[in-house]
Amino acid sequence: MYSKELTSKKRDEFEDILEERRLSSDLRYAMKCYTPVIYKGLSPCKPNAIKSAVLQSEQVQYVIKQLAKEMGESPDIIQEEATEILDEMGHSMQLGAVRFFAFTLSKIFKRLFQRVCVNEEGMQRLQHAIQEHPVVLLPSHRSYVDFLMLSYLLYTYDLALPVIAAGIDFLGMKIVGELLRRAGAFFMRRSFGGNRLYWAVFAEYVKTMLRSGYAPIEFFLEGTRSRTAKTLTPKFGLLSIVMEPFFKREVFDTYLVPISISYERILEESLYAYELLGVPKPKESTSGLLKARRILSDNFGTIHIYVGEPVSLRTLASGRINRCPYNLVPRHLPQKPSEDIQEFVSDVAYKMELLQIENMVLSPWVLVAAVLLQNLPAMDFELLIEKTLWLKGLTQTFGGFIEWPDNLCAKKAVVSSLTLHSNIARLVDGRVVLNDKGVEDGAVGEIVFKRALAILMCATYRNQLLNVFVRPSLVAVALQMTRSFRREEVYSCFSFLRDVFSDEFVFFPGISLKDFEEGCFLLTKCDAIQTTQQEIYPTDKGSAIVSFLSAMFRPFVEGYQLIFRYLSKETKEAFTEKQFIPGVRNFVFQLLEKGKTQCYEVLSSDMQKNALAALVQLGAVKKKKMSNGFTYNVNQEAVNKILDMFDARIPVQKPVAARL
Amino acid sequence: MAAAAEEAAGSGGGSPSSARRRLRIISGHLRGSPRAPEREALSPSPCKAQGGSAEPASGSIPKKRQELLKWNGWGYNDSKFIFNKKGQAEFTGKRYRLGGMVLPTFKEWIEKTFGASLEHKTTSRASLNVNDVPPSIVNEEFLQDLRATKISYSQDAEDRVFRAHGHCLHEIFVLREGMFKRIPDIVVWPVCHEDVVKIVELACKHNLCIIPFGGGTSVSSALECPEEEKRTIVSLDTSQMNRILWIDEKNLTACVEAGIVGQDLEKQLAESGFCTGHEPDSMEFSSLGGWVATRASGMKKNIYGNIEDLVIHIKMVTPRGIVEKNCQVPRMSTGPDIHHFIMGSEGTLGVVTEVTIKIRPVPEYQKYGSVVFPNFERGVACLREVAKQRCAPASIRLVDNAQFQFGHALKPQVASIFTSFLDGLKKFYITKFKGFDPNILCVATLLFEGDREKVLQHEKQVYDIATKFGGLAAGEDNGQRGYMLTFVIAYLRDLGLDYYVIGESFETSVPWDRVLDLCRNVKERIVRECKEKGVQFAPLSTCRVTQTYDAGACVYFYFAFNYRGISDPIHVYEQIERAAREEILANGGSLSHHHGVGKLRKRWMKESISDVGLGMLRSVKEYVDPNNIFGNKNLL
């Protein structure tokens, strides 16, 4: 799963694509001769031809007939409905719109960003892949800029523009929605689990485009923009749709291309923080976009896009898939994937996300933010530089991909980071201070809110480190929690934490022991611990690392404890998620106001939801589907038990792998 | 045994007597071939046939096979591809229509397709080195008992080696360059059912292993002796059981001894005006018993049916005794059909000795035809429609573009300027006027058979359907050459082996909706595997849809590559073939349509027929042959 020589892993060089844009005419660029390379098996067709092929397909016709029979309606009416769905969803890629975007995006990107860096070798690999087999692009999702940027990038490199699965809420934006559609976006409803017709039409639409090799298909494994900049655990629906043509051998192979897009400064950073704190996200609207224009005068630093090695689905599947289920049912019948397949899809999804994480560029500011958050409210500038440099070394040991701009000296790098992020932290009299003061000092509540806002924004950047650090760090946390050196106990605790945080961080399913060994290996590599067959203990000089790592994850450990405590005490009856979030928020808010905790991050609705999901998975909370969504029921005793394990009042009781 | 090569060229096309002529040509193969001298010491005991002519028939294949057939390759000694002094390809001998003809474009094709060069040649050993042959170990008591039966036998090294193999690539390679680790210890030639009964009894008494041998055309490693077999291995050669015992014109059946080879069966039936119509590609050499044992399929199955449709009654000698039905009826409802335990048993249960088979009057008229399609997809769609309307001609096959080009390369030198002018015109019409891409188009070949009037009517119906799918009639000659190609390919492998090119064919059956995907994916898989395994030149990877059914089709693949620069070509070849089979199974294809399982495809049997299914077959084997006398280890 993980390569042992993380630091020596060779990564490609970056190239700034904006550089040329600053030197030559955008108009000429937008009007350039655009003849992308295409899939070798492509039979050229127009978007409308695809739509009618989808409508006429056996798959869709089958579902239409079924529904007609069940509902006693005429198939024509349902066919009509399917046409409407398709019109709502379908893209209508036009070169004109693409050129329009090429022009305007050039203008906008040049104002927003200093540089847009791309690994050219990745683009070359992609170019080969597109010709060979159908390609699925799997970018990380941190911002709306993601898919605009990716299309812009492919246009720049003369590659076929992707068709993009986008949420249907974009359609609310009048002109922009239509423009996006013409640039190749197709829209999916956020949830359509129950609607068989929608599912059939949608799945067939995606598969038809994939099979014909019409264009690369792009979607986000994370399902939505990660508001915390921490990779979200994957969604499987779309992935299993694009994998199906291969399972059914309608295509020889399919390439999955993980793409990591990282922003030195995220466009939506403050929006996200507000949203996490419960101030609702503004609905996508064109006027909203226009209002956001003022951000155009702001500087958002550098974007790094790393196009990963295309992964052959055939190679991944070799020896894993029992072919029988697909041979015994006609291929056009809707078929629930077998457990094998579901497990495989899930594994692939996690693998792709881990690849995204591995290739995600980390900026110096990410390190600064991580250090700063452990030294609130202010810290000495020189110390910050020193710590940042130290953390840089550690990050690289753990396989983090740091791009240090132009080999700047540490001081300059930190200063330039602080300048870019002056809305979060400032340099005042040789000390770096978090920017958490309102314009005027208001009530206590106001202060807590402002502070939480600043901390969450800062955390957004530290979060980018977490998935690189999570394995060694959870070993460190486990070491501190168990206060024992016995390998067995440490592993039990690690494994417990891994389960609890399974929605918070990205772990490849079912390899707890491997993750543990990986964590231990990395800690040994940086001389933080020594291990024997039976024991693990921190070295003398390693205690600094161990305590830094566990401090890094403390907000999560403490945050989860607070949430669990809330659930064990404050809630009696069944509740919905809509009741849970404000409830836990108020609970924490009060504690913060009274100064009983310093854990501001637990105000993040993201953490609250993850903690609830974790309890559901651990069986301490029952989740029930009701007509109007889900309701939850707490099993107080079970939650208390988990709390006790956190407090190390009782040893973690888990069956320990025999091989340890 | 199973089909590996197409039957001889056949007749000249649309004349009423063409079917007869086709048979005459087949019988012509025999004329002039030396009759094998009987071994003096051993004279066959005359057998009483039930009511038929007691005279032992003279078969086309002598007991000393090597006197007529190649010892290290396919087919007749006198028929092979060579490069003549001018460096042009030529086919020798007079047995086939292609015999003595020069093929001017073939050399270029072979160089272009495989990157092969006439300068790089490997040569086979000139003859078998008798000293390398494993010794014959037979215990004296058995020999005494055997002599008492007066059944002809031999412990001669050549006789034994030539019954130790079929025609898989690795087997031929071993003949050319090495030696089998285990071969039969003794060859016996029973001449009738009773002889077989005696041999099986002796084998049970002395605990020997019997491996039945029919035509020796197996391509599934079915004839290879299991290396670990410690008992004496008796190769039971059925070739001398080759009489037609009786013909029943009222019920249109004939009772035939199982050792008869296809060409003799058709030739002898033709004398009475009948045929079976069963024409697997190997029919010159493969035997009736072999067809039954492997569930063979014939080219003209659309009219006559496959072996399971043709067989009325089977007599098989097993260690438990004789198994047969009590009547000769078209169908019966008496539990699972015991014929289906026998058909496809691949020599693991016993020896098929006599078969009653359906016969038909020889058709009055036969006509070839061909249709060009703009691409393979359209061609498959047309075949599917033909199958749907159930109007398939005796044979309908669709070759892909690579095979079309291959067929083209085998076009003999044209005799007159007029013909070449006509060819040019045809080509112009199809490629320029109709806009077919010569690198994409594909061809269907057709064979119609029956009453003249009905054939013409039928022909029109099929061509009408073809037109709907963009097909253009492309003449009888192209059709006929297409059928010739199948038989030629088996001889071609021997030529390829001389120039570092190895190859083989394999087949499958697949539902209609998966035909295109399967063909594309398997061909692609072969190309990729070759690249991965370090094959330096792109392989020939080509297929044809060779049979149509209501619910699917049989697809036949040819795969060959130039192995220069590879140290262990056979191993590489086998890995690629295995990958191709995996691909077939993953695409919803079957393990085999008619070649059988043998030992080559055993590993996939469980997956193919489920655990319980395999158990069912095993329990039959355990009952019928508890001591594994028929120990060729095929199938299970």
From TrEMBL, chain A:
Any single GO CC term annotated in Swiss-Prot or TrEMBL for this entry: peroxisomal membrane
One Gene Ontology biological process: glycerophospholipid metabolic process
This enzyme's EC code(s): 2.3.1.42
Domain Phospholipid/glycerol acyltransferase span(s) in chain numbering: 135-264
Annotated keywords: Acetylation, Acyltransferase, Membrane, Peroxisome, Phosphoprotein, Transferase
CDD domains referenced in this protein's UniProt entry, alphabetically: LPLAT_DHAPAT-like
Gene Ontology MF terms in the entry: glycerone-phosphate O-acyltransferase activity
Membrane topology (UniProt): Peripheral membrane protein
EC class: transferase
Subcellular location: Peroxisome membrane
A Pfam family of this chain: GPAT_C
UniProt catalytic activity: dihydroxyacetone phosphate + hexadecanoyl-CoA = 1-hexadecanoylglycerone 3-phosphate + CoA; dihydroxyacetone phosphate + an acyl-CoA = a 1-acylglycerone 3-phosphate + CoA
Entry similarity comment: Belongs to the GPAT/DAPAT family.
Subunit comment: Part of a heterotrimeric complex composed of GNPAT, AGPS and a modified form of GNPAT.
Protein name per UniProt: Dihydroxyacetone phosphate acyltransferase
Organism, as annotated: Grus japonensis (Japanese crane)
TrEMBL record, chain B:
Location of the active site: 556 (proton donor/acceptor)
Main location: membrane
SUPFAM superfamilies: FAD-binding/transporter-associated domain-like, FAD-linked oxidases, C-terminal domain
Source taxon at top rank: Eukaryota
Keyword terms, alphabetized: Acetylation, FAD, Flavoprotein, Lipid biosynthesis, Lipid metabolism, Membrane, Peroxisome, Phosphoprotein, Transferase, Transit peptide
Annotated ranges, domain FAD-binding PCMH-type: 180-362
Localization terms from the record: Peroxisome membrane
Positions bearing the site annotation: Important for enzyme activity: 397
Keyword match Acetylation: yes
EC number: 2.5.1.26
Cofactor(s) listed: FAD
Chain residues that bind substrate: 493
Residues the entry annotates as binding FAD: 212-218, 294-297, 346-352
Pathway: Lipid metabolism; Glycerolipid metabolism; ether lipid biosynthesis
Region called Disordered, residue ranges: 1-62
GO molecular function, one term: alkylglycerone-phosphate synthase activity
Gene Ontology CC terms, in alphabetical order: peroxisomal membrane
Pfam families the record matches: FAD-oxidase_C (PF02913), FAD_binding_4 (PF01565)
Catalytic activity: a long chain fatty alcohol + a 1-acylglycerone 3-phosphate = a 1-O-alkylglycerone 3-phosphate + a long-chain fatty acid + H(+); 1-hexadecanoylglycerone 3-phosphate + a long-chain fatty acid = a 1-acylglycerone 3-phosphate + hexadecanoate; hexadecan-1-ol + 1-hexadecanoylglycerone 3-phosphate = 1-O-hexadecylglycerone 3-phosphate + hexadecanoate + H(+)
Top enzyme category: transferase
Subunit details: Homodimer.
Known function: Catalyzes the exchange of the acyl chain in acyl-dihydroxyacetonephosphate (acyl-DHAP) for a long chain fatty alcohol, yielding the first ether linked intermediate, i.e. alkyl-dihydroxyacetonephosphate (alkyl-DHAP), in the pathway of ether lipid biosynthesis.
Membership in a protein family: Belongs to the FAD-binding oxidoreductase/transferase type 4 family.
Record protein name field: Alkylglycerone-phosphate synthase
The organism of origin for this protein: Grus japonensis (Japanese crane)
